[in-house]
Amino acid sequence: MRITLPWPSPKLAPNRRNGKHWTVTHAAKLEAFGAAATLTMQAQRSTGYEPPMDGSVALAITFCAPDKRRRDLDGLLSSCKASLDAVAQVLGIDDARFEPVTLRRGETTKGGAVVVEVGC
């Protein structure tokens, strides 16, 4: 199942929020979670994907940046935590079951996107 998520808000970047109060990032987390939940439900309905009852679920994440700036993959993954939590919740699984997790860089895309492939 393929889910195309919006590019994460800069407010969710882990290196930007050190020392800041939790309320600074809370609204951005809620927005990311809600968008990911909606997009995951749509993808699940259109494909009929059901995760396995037990065992691991493979996850491939492709980051299609909105510009040519350099970004580290671990920071991008951290920025997407709320979105990935939503994907797991909608699928009804514990996100600890996402294994292996493959991170890739994709083509530059206007506005940016994060393509999540579940069970690939």
- Encode the helix/strand succession as letters: EHEHHEE
The gross shape turns out to be globular
**Whole-angstrom Rg:** 14 Å
Low-confidence stretches: none
- Strand order in space, largest sheet: 1-4-2-3
What level of helicity do the residues show?
Answer: 25-40%
Question: Class by helix and strand content?
Answer: alpha+beta
Query: Count the strands?
Result: 4
Largest pleated sheet: 4 strands, mixed
In whole angstroms, the N-to-C terminal distance is: 8 Å
Note the total helix count. 3
Name the beta content range.
Answer: 15-25%
**Overall mean confidence score, pLDDT:** 92
Give structural notes.
There is one protein chain. The protein is α+β, with helices and mostly antiparallel strands. It has three helices and four strands, in the order βαβααββ. 36% of the residues lie in helices and 22% in strands. It has a four-stranded mixed beta sheet with strand order 1-4-2-3. α1 packs across α3. It is globular. The termini are close together. The mean pLDDT is 92.
